[in-house]
Each structure stands twice: as C-alpha cells, then as structure tokens.
Design goal:
Chain lengths: 338, 338
C-alpha cells in the first residue's frame, strides 16, 4: 500500500510532517506501507534521506510550488499545478498511490482531492468526518466541512458514511448514529433536520438512535453525530475554544499563590491525562467521506504524532475498503430512490 | 416596581425560588421593588410568611394548578389557566406587575408570556437572549429560544435586541455585535447568515464587527453573539456538556493517587474561582426580547442565588426601559423598510 503525504502542508511543515512519516514507518505493524513524500526536494530530502527506508519504503516526489494562501481553494488548485497538495492528489488519482494525507488548508485539500479522483457515484456531497474525544471514547462528527446548506438527503448520506467510518476505522461495532438537534423528540429541529430524522428512521442497516442534544456529545451519547457543515464547524471550533479558555483560566488559577502552584504541580499528572484524552493528535485527522479514494485531512497544527496517526487512519481506511463500502451503500440508495 | 415570580417553576421549586426572593428583598438597593410570589398557597406561604416583608413587599397570589409536563407548551398554557406561570404572566399582562420571572419550562414560559402580553409591534420573532461567561466577562448569546428556522431579517432583529440587552442590562457601552458563522469572511456562512451579514453591515446605530467563529466566543471576541435558535441551543448545551465532561475527567484525575488528591485539595481555590467564572447562576437568566413586557427565564436548575440574580435582571430591564428602547428600534426598522 502506498500513501501520498503532502510534506508542505500544515503549520509545522515540512519538519513535523516528515518526522511523522519516519515514526510511522518505524512501527513494525506498518511494514506493508510505503510513504511518498510530496514536496520541494531541497526542503524535504535533507530531513528524510538519513532514514533506513529512504529510497525503498520512503520515496520523494518533487513539487516545487507553494500555494498562495489568499486565493479561493478552486482558484489556488487550478493555478498551482506543481503545488505539493495538487501533485500528491494527482498520484492518488493516477493510481500511483492509494491514499492522500495532508495537514494543509482543508478547502484546498478537498478541492485538490475531488479534482484528482472525484466523488463516488451516487454521493451528492462528500463530507468531512472528524473524530472528537468523549468520556466514552472517540466519536465521529460529520460533516465539519464545506456543506453549509444541506438538504435532508445529504444528512442521511452523512449518517451512512459516518457510520462506515466509525465501524471500519475506529472499530466500533454497530455504531450508534444520532442527529444533532435542539431537542431529543423527533419533531425538534430545523425543517431539514426533522425531515432527515424521518428518513433515517426508515433506513435499514443503520443503528439510528434519534436526535442528540449538544450536551450529550462529550458524554458519549452517540458514536456518530450528524449535522450540516455549518453547525459542525461551530461545534468543533466552539469545543476547541472552550477547552482552551478553561485551560487559560486554570493556568491563571494555578499562579495565584504558593498553595495553588504546589497544587497544580501535584495535580499535573491528572491534567496531562485530561489533555491526552482531549487531544486531537491521538486521533489523527478527518476523513473526506464520499471521495472516490481515501483522503485524510489532518489538523493544520499537526505535529509528528498527529501525522503518524493520520497516516494510520489512511492505512486503516484503505485496508478496510471504506471507499468500496460507501460506494455500495450509495448504489443501494440510488436503486431505492428509483 | 412589582415583579411576578413563578414560585412553582424549576427543579428546586418552591423552596429555592422563595428563598431567592427573600434574599433579593433583603438587599438595600432593592428597596423600591416588590415581589409577588405566584403559586400554591399551602406550599408557598409557609416558606415566606416569616419574612419581615410578608404582606408588604412580599405578596402571594394563589395559583393551584400544576402544568402537565408531557403537553406541548401551547396546549399546556391553554388548559391550565390556574397554573402559576399562567397566573403570573396574567398579572403582568393586566398591569398588576411590571415583569415576569420563571425558572419553569422555557417553551411554556414563552407561550404564557406572549399570550398574556404579546409582542412589541414590529418585532416578528421574539428571541431568548442568555448571558454566557467569557474570559473577558459576560456576553449575550441570542437567540437560544424557539426560533429554529430564521430569515435574515430575524437575525438582524436579534442583533439589535441583543445589543440593547448588553448595553442596558449588562452595562457594556457600544457592545460589539457579531454573527456566529463558520468563518470570519463575510461570504462565509449559510445563505441566511451571509444575507444577514450584508444587512447588518448597512445598519446604523449598531456596533457590528462582522462574523465570529465558534472558537472566539469564550475568549470574549464579541459582546453579543447572534445566531438562530437551533444553533444557539446547540452552542449553549454543548458548552454545558463539555464543561461538565472536563469537570468529570478532573474529578477522576484527582482520585488517581495521593499526589493528585493532595494537588486537587491545594488547587481547589483556583478551581472554585474557575467554577465561579463559568457559573450561570451569577448571571441570573435569559431575557425574552421582543415581548411587550419584561420576561426573565431562569435556568431550570436554578438555586436561590440564580433566582435572586434573575429578579435583579428583571429589575434592571424594567428600570432601564429595555422594552421601550426595543419598541422604538422596531418602529424605525418598519419605517426604513417602507
């Protein structure tokens, strides 16, 4: 299996990206995976060439251009044909690699991926599914991408695709799928959510448990939380922001006096554990569901560990045939609709 | 000034509700306020009759019925004419009281209030505005109520009314008003949000600062955060849920070993401070903006302190003439639209 890794995407590229690839390749259970680093040769080669896998399981494909960040994603992808993300997506599109991993701009990655290898037939709207930590373990939140105004059928597809992600990649059997709404009753929600609820209830092969409220997400009330990309974006960023604000207040609190300073010191191991459980780098990135090939979008702030885990998600998605499973589902849906 | 207090509404009614009223009346700066307790005489009188204000600044109006919780709000209000919330709203509608305060069901309170004293002319959709804590102090979030599917003009009205709340009740001069969206750029957001942005930009007399993302709410990026009731509900409950999940993890963390136990003990004062800053009871309740009289909806879990503060919000809203100011705004808006 070959994974194309955008070595230039992300806040800590290329150093942390390359390091993530090296760490991934060192783990014995990944012996069957090759990583293709895509990026500027003079920036990337010095970071990678000392590896014992260099030239065998670790390759480099040169991509000299850097994408201008002030452009709209479609414009950027069209103009910079030699940018690392465009070249990496192209390798997957032409079959030279099986999956794409990038920590670059989400919009640009989506556009580059969909241009290079397109959508699965029958999937109207590819969606970005990410993993959020809960008290019961990881859960999938879908969509957190660009699908801002959705129809009920889009939410239904997000539910199905999210369920495949949870089951195949996270290994959750019969994932509990819920629709995010402002109340648990089936008549609660926007018009679109209420209509999606009615459709999901009738759907075979999905463990749909009804609506979930915002307060239950982090308590692990569902394994897959379905919403449109507008709400998903707000949920994700709000959670990051609130967790950050609480951390800031705790730091301020710790610095109050010697008692709180000592307390914080002794309490530290518990706080580290808390941070570990809330840490996105443990989960490695979001999956672009509905694309015809596997595409993992890692957090812009990704460090080596996050990249290593993102490559792991890509590997899992390829070996569990996530794309094929979604394609079969989409086909059945089309047949049912006719 | 007279405030009608639903003594039977809320998880801890009537004990905590009555206690909140008693505490409020004891504070010297509230000498000009009378509280009318509305509820079952045999339940409420024993809790209140020992007060030195009993019969003077503390009155009781008997309301024998309890609302069945399994009914839809409109149905419940229609059927239970002798329920405390219906009687209390009636007192405000008939001019016997200046404001309504309840910790009962939000939907029921809204329906009872709007049936008893209606909306301000020109306000299409009354909205529920609540106060959320941020690193920079309190901010207003509006709507968190029942307005699930909104038009752009509704969001514009929420922005204006929320700004009045922040300025008059919270005392924030020229409050910074922002639209909650999935990106800061003005072309980011759902169709409705993008259209509302365009209208808000052109509006005189409002300190509109553009879009705000989810991550900036708790960092105090705006004084008024505007969204539809679907998103507002999710934001509010998600925040409660995440803060609760973090608290649970910290408790678990504290119990790991003697070191973390001692640490937690020493760190406690800082955690109390954190809890105080995140505590909704400090802020006392949401305001039903656009109703023709002042109506404060307190959290269902309200304790005496939350009720005391809710009565305080009602007093402030009445004395600062919030309803009049919103009525003038609505009239100007109607005139402009013609």
């Amino acid at each position: 299996m070959k994974i194309a890794l955008d070595a230039m995407g992300g806040d800590h590229a290329p150093e942390e990206i390359v390091r993530g690839a090296l760490e991934f390749l060192e783990e014995p259970e990944h012996r069957d995976v090759e990583v293709i680093l895509v990026g500027s040769e003079k920036d990337v080669a010095p970071l990678a060439s000392a590896s014992r896998h260099w030239g065998t399981r670790l390759q480099l494909v040169h991509a000299p251009e850097r994408i201008g960040m002030d452009l709209a994603p479609t414009e950027a992808v069209r103009r910079f044909k030699e940018a690392s993300i465009v070249v990496a997506a192209g390798l997957v599109g032409s079959g030279q690699a099986d999956a794409l991993v990038s920590a670059g701009n989400t919009g640009v990655t989506m556009v580059a991926a969909l241009r290079a290898f397109g959508r699965i037939r029958g999937v109207e709207r590819p969606a970005v599914a990410t993993v959020v930590p809960t008290l019961q373990g990881p859960a999938v939140l879908c969509d957190v991408g660009a699908n801002v105004d959705c129809r009920p059928s889009h939410l239904v597809a997000f539910a199905q695709m999210g369920s495949v992600y949870a089951e195949q990649v996270l290994g959750i059997p019969k994932p509990r799928v819920a629709l995010l709404s402002n109340g648990e009753e089936e008549n609660k929600g926007s018009e679109v959510v209420v209509a999606a609820h009615a459709q999901l209830k009738e759907l075979a092969g999905l463990n749909f448990i009804g609506n979930i409220e915002g307060r239950d997400i982090f308590h692990g009330g569902a394994d897959v939380v379905v919403c449109d990309g507008f709400v998903g974006n707000i949920v994700l960023k709000l959670s990051e922001g609130l967790a950050g604000a609480i951390a800031t207040m705790m730091r301020e609190g710790a610095n109050r006096n010697w008692r709180t300073k000592l307390g914080a010191l002794l309490f530290k191991s518990a706080l580290f554990e808390l941070r570990r459980r809330m840490d996105y780098t443990e989960y490695g990135g979001a999956l672009l569901l509905g694309a015809a090939r596997v595409c993992v979008i890692s957090h812009g702030a990704s460090n080596a560990k996050a990249i290593k885990n993102a490559i792991g998600v890509a590997k899992e998605a390829v070996s569990r045939d996530v794309t094929q499973i979604i394609a079969r589902m989409a086909q059945e849906r089309v047949v049912t609709e006719i």
